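Dear colleague,

Thank you for sharing your sequence with our group. We've completed the structure prediction you requested, and as agreed, I am returning the results in plain text so they can be pasted directly into your records. Please verify that the sequence below matches your submission; if there's any discrepancy, let me know and we will rerun it promptly.
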Amino acid sequence: MSRIGKAPITVPSGVDVALSGRTISVKGPKGQLSREIPGQITVRQEGDQLLVERPDDARENRAMHGLTRSLVNNMVVGVTEGFKRQLDIVGVGYRAEAQGSNALKLALGFSHPVNVKAPEGISFEVPTATQIVVSGIDKEVVGQVAANIRSIRKPEPYKGKGVRYSGERVLRKAGKTGKK
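Please find the predicted structure tokens below.
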């Protein structure tokens, strides 16, 4: 049995969970999220806990059990605390500039600045010119937006210039050796 799937999800006070058919909706102080429950997995509420159950040990149901539990837990955490992803910009002249809370202007060594708009529910912060914080209530969207920004100029292996996740370790390569 899935160890992750067996764990109950504690619903904090101030969070409303609505189950209707195959859809689960979670509403909290930061916003509201809803999602379709995949396959034959069922979610039921007992007091202040949510239990994710599967009908049998079929391969597909085993695969979806832990996944569904993690997705529902991320919804509960998202509407209470939210999620953040921090990016660092490394390179001479590389910088970010906030255009309100939902747009960025990036100078990443191209001949033109790159403008990035935030999708619904995502906000950007620029604490320093070389740091970007992507925040929102949906963990998937926060991660995807951060990955899209990183893909504009990935860290290159020779000098390490580019956009990277905070704490990401870039493997460096040795450059060319001189002719003797």
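Summary note from our side: The two ends are 64 Å apart (CA to CA).

Kind regards,
the structure core
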